[in-house]
Design goal:
The chain contains four helices and seven strands; from the N terminus they run E-E-E-E-H-H-H-E-H-E-E. With 154 residues, the chain is of the alpha+beta class. The strands form two sheets. It has a five-stranded mixed sheet with strand order 4-1-7-5-6. A two-stranded antiparallel sheet has the order 2-3. Helix 1 packs parallel to helix 3. Bound molecules: magnesium ion.
């Protein structure tokens, strides 16, 4: 068994979509990014890569590469999954830190969508959400979203 952790943060700006775990979140601001800015999938990707000591998302998919402009992050996650050989994902636990909007039951949609992409049972994927209690600069003012994720790999 191998464990990995991932972290991602994106600035939130008007005129962009907010996509987390492949689920579009109703919001007046979205992630500023070269890709679609899905911080949840990005953190999960880094957790998988970290568990297997395969580098990180920035090395695999540089934001200077036009191929990844506005790319759907599910595509990036699928590319990583195809590179983990005979390993399998045991479970995922992630925390989204977002001041607003409140995610509520959308976390369940994110978890089941991640389970679908990872081809594991939804009972093995956890997505939690919390605010930044108006602390931590841009996170607390609602101008950024951050995600931390842990993955266990067999
Ligand atoms: Mg990112």
């Amino acid at each position: 068994m191998r464990i990995g952790t991932g972290f991602d943060i994106h600035r939130l700006v008007p005129g962009r979509s907010l996509v987390l775990g492949g689920i579009k979140v109703p919001s007046d601001k979205g992630s500023l990014a070269h890709s679609d800015g899905d911080a949840l999938i990005h953190a999960v990707i880094d957790a998988i890569l970290g568990a297997l000591a395969l580098g990180d998302i920035g090395k695999l998919f540089p934001d200077t590469d036009p191929r990844y402009k506005d790319i759907n992050s599910e595509t990036l996650l699928l590319a990583v999954l195809s590179s983990i050989g005979s390993h399998s994902i045991v479970n995922v636990d992630a925390t989204v830190i977002l001041q607003a909007p409140k995610l509520g039951d959308l976390t369940f949609d994110m978890a089941s969508n991640l389970a679908r992409i990872l081809r594991i049972d939804p009972s093995n994927v956890s997505v939690k959400a919390k605010t930044a209690e108006h602390l931590l600069g841009e996170l607390g003012s609602g101008d950024a979203v951050a995600v931390q994720a842990s993955v266990l790999i067999d």
